[in-house]
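Human: Not sure, check this?
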Amino acid sequence: KRPEIFTFCRALKEEKFAARRAILPVLQAEEDERFVKEWKKYLEYEAEVMKDVPGWKVGENVYNSGRWMPPATGELRPEVW
């Protein structure tokens, strides 16, 4: 039979993981909100820079793959701001 301390430690680990699983949707929502704000700033910047280019459509995918790929983690073009 296992000593009680091991059972207690396992219960603490389970509680910690349950808390992490519970808070994950909130963290994801915060990240999504941050992403949308940064993306809007980026599109405004793109519109300003490319305003004199005929036929340029702001926000349009230049690769024409048909798939949306999320940007890499971290800031969107931090050198822009």
